[in-house]
Amino acid sequence: MRLNVPISVGGWGRFLSRWDVLAVLLILGLLVFLAEASRHLLQPLAELQKRPVSLDPANLPEYAARTTLRMLIAMTLSLLFTFTYATLAAKNKYAERLLVPLLDILQSVPILGFISITVVFFMALAPGRVLGAEFAAIFAIFTSQAWNMAFSFYQSLRTVPAELLEASRNFRLSPWMSFWRVDVSFAMPQLIWNMMLSMSGSWFFVVASEAISVGNTTITLPGVGSYIALAITQRDLTAVGYAIFTMAIVILIYDQILFRPLVAWADRFRFEQEPGVPPPRSWMLDVLRRSRLVDRLTLPFAKLWRRLLLARWPEHAEAAERAPRPRQHAWITLQWAAVVTALAAVALWQVAHFVTADIALADVTAALLLGLATLSRIVVLIALASVIWVPIGVWVGTRPHVANLVQPIAQFLAAFPANLLFPIVVSAIVALRLDPNIWLSPLMILGTQWYILFNVVAGAAAIPAELRAAAINFRVRGWLWWRRIALPAVLPYYVTGAITASGGSWNASIVAEVASWGDEHLRAYGLGAYIAEQTDAGDFHHIVLGIAVMSFFVVLINRIFWRPLYLYAERKFRLG
Amino acid sequence: MSASMLLDIHALRQTFPRADGGELLVLDGIELQLGQGQIVGLLGRTGSGKSTLLRSIAGLMPPSAGTVTYLGQPVVAPAPGIAMVFQGFALFPWLTVLENVQLGLEALGLPDAEIRKRALAAIDLIGLDGYESAYPRELSGGMRQRVGFARALVVHPNILLMDEPFSALDVLTAETLRTDFLELWGDGKLPIKGVILVTHNIEEAVLMCDRILLFSSNPGRIIREIGVDLKRPRNRLDPRFRDLVEEIYVAMTARRPVPPKAGISAGAVATSIDTILPRISANLLSGFIETLAAEPYSGKADLPVIAELLHMEADDLFPVSDALQMLHLVEIEGGDIKITDTGKQFVEAGTDDRKKIFQRQLLSYVPLAAHIRRVLQERANHVAPKSRFFDELEDHMSTEDAEVTLRSVTAWGRYAEAFAYDDDSQTFSLENPT
Q1: Sheet containing B159-163: which strands, arranged edge to edge?
Q2: Which among B56, B231, B72, B66 has a CA at the least distance from the CA of B161?
Q3: Which is deepest, A21, A147, A356, B305, by most CB within 10 Å?
Q4: B250 touches chain A (CB under 8 A)
Q5: Chain A interface residues (partner B, CB cutoff 8 A)
């Protein structure tokens, strides 16, 4: 009988192979990075003023390390949030009723408007210390990462095949074990994909969250984001170039040493087992897997993890999932409804109190009108982006070798913060005396249009070869081909991308409707500019009003336009 | 209860909540005893609740009423000593063969060395040597189900529950696996004391079981218990084997006594609006009746014989024969299927006439089709939304059954050109596109 040994037992000829050396270097590098980056966290705020952010490019590696650390901490928090929140939503049907819509709304709240409020909160938690500002920045990044991850995890949990759940119950896995072995495992590929999207998306917010000014207080945390902000204030084009270069390097690094290995490793968790698709590979994962030293170093952790996984918690009273009796069920529902109503009442009272203190009906009307202005911009922009990217996406998607080339570039562009283009746009608008109401708008869709491209590429790549062959066979070409084959086939994918793009554009409007380059300040008429200005003024009542109105618009558009369109496209055009 | 009794089910009843707040009865009055060394088969059509019963025994789905007693203890949650083999294998694709097999032992909290020893022994027993580090996706269906068996056996259960374990496999692979299993069982090499097998394959039941319980559908009740005392290993060609198969076919196609209803002539299969219609295409119906009319059957055939020739298992065959019988194109009596005069006309007719005959039979004998047609005729614009009929059906059956039934009647109505359906607007109408 052949034994399957969990550790490598090859020849012991050489103690260290070159794989080992490489692995040691990488791991040491990671440790140093973590140590260095976290050393400065617990310093009084005054320290920050003493060593202000400077545009010297020699500082950029440190800034990049700090920014990345913030993003990674936020990612860890997002994972914790995902595992708890989404699990509760998926496993408890009472909680589900509240948590799912809550997440839906949270997704629509413009994070950028939110930052000013959370900053004050976290500063109050740790007054006078860098830690408070750090928390605030991390929290802002967290809010830009967590929602879609939690949503994807929730949806995965809802679709775990019934037989797998039955098997895990039949073999009496403890809930803890079945969570890791069944639920998390099943959700893994989707979750990692969403982690990558989140990481890209959060760059946009890094820039906004590292240099925050609320009223008279300006908080600048050393990082790439504050570097960019300073470069913009000082009209230093070279520095902007350095920042872009640094970002590109950082994105490349974490893609290669974090996400590629994760994707390659998570391949085993794929549930659909389509043949013929080569599994994703990663040199980093190969290094880690081949190195004996890594094996030996990680063995204790692997053992610990196994112990933890197998831990017998106090004998869970294998409560049969007996459906509650009707009367009992009604009682629980009633209690639940009471709790929710009470919570809603308290929240309503709070909001009402907060708003009525300083807000007139005229303010609300004005905010709504501003919202309409921003809405019309977004509608036009999404339409334009669709006209441009759908044909390109289909063209790319039907050519696999081009798609492989384009995807990473588009992923980088999606991470590209709009602020970096301010110099060009603002200078052009001023020099050519253009109308900011029109020409600031493209900034809104700068980072989000790529989601349309991603999804259309994926959709076009998914058109079965047989359908394409049939089209060629029947000589379906030109406009007919687009109308009858390409566009219907990518519609479900396109809608998914467009939903993300439109939601993101609302958020981006807060940065994009006001732009400055040194002393030049430009402003467009819109809700985003309104929120940005109220933030500068430190007027919390009107910030909340702005955010509320924007969330209202996003939810409204989602419910009356995107959701029906999505359901229609799914029902009618989903292939297979 | 005697000492050799493993499982005792008494007066078990299972209901599911219905959309309108009522209850849907799935299983009723189930009595079942499993003794040491027995294989008991649960045989019935789709919708007879046999898989539901298996899940009650596994403690996955507590019964609405009645008791399941295992070794003197009531089963209210998954019990140690009852392991299950699943129809779709239910292997964890992210675990290797060895890890899948170890899973149940890990849950028991055994020491690592013991887990390893027992897992390897089970893998050895079931013929999976050399596959320990393979992932399920790398294995064929037959090998995957072997992993399913090894995973269940490794926990040394007293009772092995099998939920149509061979139905997802091709004929030859299924036969190999069955033979291997019976051999190990016969030699007493399996660490189990009793088996309950859910199947819709009549021959499989006769081949494997000591006792067979026949289930009726909607709701599931045990209509008959058949003891199989043929010597093992059993031979499918043995006349006594064939007789038993024939006997079960007769029992499963026998008309249930139904009180005659108005509008349905005596001797007909009683159908009403709330009859669940099988999802059978008009093409399949035509194909089947053509085969029946042609040589060598010339209009009359033995059900097991025609099933074997067409490679249809009982579960595929019965819905077709039921539908044809419902439309009065065939008659079924004593395990034989016979074409009617209308059936003959149908076979001999051309495409257009076939549609006319089909329409006449459909509107006469399928009350739901007649009902839809009548509603459409009564409405001024001859259009009615799908939801109107769907809601009506949901009062009598589960949501899934209502969906299937409505789809079937839509497909038949379209073929018969009795009415049209537009999926975009989800409406029925009398208009056909011109």
Answers
A1: B82-85, B159-163, B194-199, B38-43, B211-215, B222-227
A2: B56
A3: A147
A4: no
A5: 1-4, 161, 163-164, 166-167, 169-174, 177, 181-182, 185, 188, 268-271, 273, 310, 312, 318-323, 572
Minimal Cα–Cα distance from A193 to chain B, Å?
Answer: 17
B16 CB within 8 Å of a chain A CB: no
Instruction: Quote the crossing angle between the two packed helices A130-158 and A60-81, to the nearest 10°.
Output: 40
Q: Which residues of B touch A1 (CB under 8 A)?
A: 120, 124, 129
Instruction: Choose the closest CB to B90 out of A167, A172, A173.
Output: A167
Within an 8 Å CB–CB cutoff, is residue B108 touching chain A?
yes
Nearest CB among B80, B86, B133 relative to A4 is that of B133
CB contact under 8 A, B109 and A181: no
Residue B296: cis peptide before it, omega within 30 degrees of 0: yes
Q: Give CA A477 to chain center in angstroms.
A: 39
Angstrom distance (rounded) from CA B410 to CA B404: 10
Global confidence as pTM: 0.80
Residue with tokens 């106090």: A314
One-character DSSP codes across B225-263: EEE--PPSSP-TTSHHHHHHHHHHHHHHHSPPP----TT
pLDDT tens readout for residues A243-277:
888 988 888 888 888 888 888 888 888 776 554 45
List the alpha helices (DSSP H) in B59-192. Answer: 97-108, 112-125, 141-153, 171-186
The domain ranges of chain A are: 14-310, 335-576
Chain B residues closer than 8 Å to A166 by CB: 55, 58, 60, 84, 86, 90
Cα–Cα distances (Å) from A504 to A193, A198, A507, A508, A546, in that order, read 18, 12, 5, 6, 16
Cβ-contact A429, A460 below 8 angstroms: no
Angular region, B109: left φ>0, alpha ψ -120 to 50, beta rest: left
- Tell me the three state secondary structure of residue A53: coil
Give the nearest partner residue to B130 out of A2, A161, A169, using CB atoms.
A2
Name the architecture of domain A335-576. Orthogonal Bundle (1.10)
Q: Which domains does chain B have, with CATH numbers?
A: 5-251 (3.40.50.300), 282-429 (1.10.10)
Q: Kindly calculate the radius of gyration of chain A based on its CA atoms and give it in whole angstroms.
A: 26
Q: Cβ A312–B109 below 8 Å, yes or no?
A: yes
Residues of B within 8 A of A182 (CB-CB) are 92
Contacts with A4 from chain B: Cβ below 8 Å = 96, 98, 132-133
Write down the pLDDT at residue A251.
85
Nearest CA in chain A to B62: A322
Q: Rounded to whole angstroms, how far apart are CA atoms B213 and B9?
A: 13
Chosen from A156, A170, A310, A572 to mutate, greatest number of chain B CBs within 10 A = A170
- DSSP assignment of A86-132, as one string? IHHHHH-HHHHHHHHHHHHHHHHS-HHHHHHHHHHHHHHHSTTBHHH
CATH class of A14-310: mainly alpha
In angstroms, rounded to a whole number, what is the distance separating the alpha carbons of residues A83 and A80? Answer: 5
Residue A112 class from Cβ within 10 Å (0-12 exposed, 13-18 middle, 19+ buried)? Answer: buried
Is the Cβ–Cβ distance between B153 and B125 less than 8 Å? yes
Q: Do A14-310 and A335-576 share a fold?
A: yes
CB contact under 8 A, A170 and B82: yes
d(CA A518, CA A486): 46
- Asked if A181 lies within 8 A of B93 by C-beta distance, the reply is no
Residue in A223, A227, A225, A280 with CA at minimum distance from that of residue A255: A280
Confidence of residue A323 (pLDDT cuts 50, 70, 90): very low
Tens-place pLDDT, residues A14-72: 445 555 555 555 555 554 555 555 555 545 555 555 567 788 888 899 999 999 999 99
Which residues are within 8 A (CB) of A368 and not within 5 positions of it... i.e. 6 or more apart?
Answer: A549
